[in-house]
Write a structure and sequence with these properties.
It contains 1 helix and 12 strands; from the N terminus they run E-E-E-E-E-E-E-E-E-E-E-E-H. The protein has a 12-stranded antiparallel β-barrel with strand order 1-2-3-4-5-6-7-8-9-10-11-12. Strand 7 and strand 8 form a beta hairpin. The protein is globular, with a radius of gyration of 15 Å. About 30% of the residues are buried.
Length: about 160
């Protein structure tokens, strides 16, 4: 299932819809303005909060957390940097680790678990410059988590100047 994200409105306080591949609103990204740290909520079509994305305070390295029902679900940190690709590690609370690598600022990257591709993020399917897709490849994957991971690493890359 592909989800369409319009990139140009990624700012704190902005709300925007992520559409499914049929053009229907699937998720609402609700930016929380006037907070001490970067905070977003990913909501379903009915307005229920699925996950909350927060900038982690007092961290030695830039990090964001993803929470579900006010409990930590995952922490995202920059793993390593090379000239051609950026790498981030997503550590779930159960110890599972996802690897995010690719050209984050170009919106060309992948989310993998033990070498298995879970999601592919790309602009290549669209002619509009500020639009990209999150293609969730496994039907049993948590789409809201994978979209949250994509949003987090993009925000971190933009802040970090990757």
């Amino acid at each position: 299932m592909k989800y369409l994200v319009r990139d140009k409105i990624f700012a704190i306080g902005d709300d925007y819809w992520i559409e499914d591949e049929d053009g229907r609103p699937a998720f609402l990204v609700d930016g929380k303005a006037l907070r001490l740290r970067d905070t977003l909520e990913l909501k379903d079509h009915d307005g229920r909060v699925l996950v909350t994305l927060r900038q982690k305070l007092l961290s030695l390295r830039d990090a964001m957390t993803i929470e579900r029902d006010e409990h930590p679900l995952a922490t995202i940190r920059r793993k390593r940097l090379s000239l051609l690709r950026n790498h981030y590690r997503v550590t779930l609370v159960d110890g599972t680790e996802l690897d995010v690598s690719g050209r984050i600022l170009d919106r060309e990257f992948a989310v993998e678990y033990e070498g298995e591709l879970l999601a592919h993020i790309s602009r290549r399917w669209f002619r509009v410059r500020d639009t990209y897709a999150v293609d969730v490849l496994r039907e049993d994957a948590d789409a809201s988590l994978l979209i949250a991971v994509a949003v987090c690493v993009i925000r971190m890359a933009e802040r970090g100047g990757d």
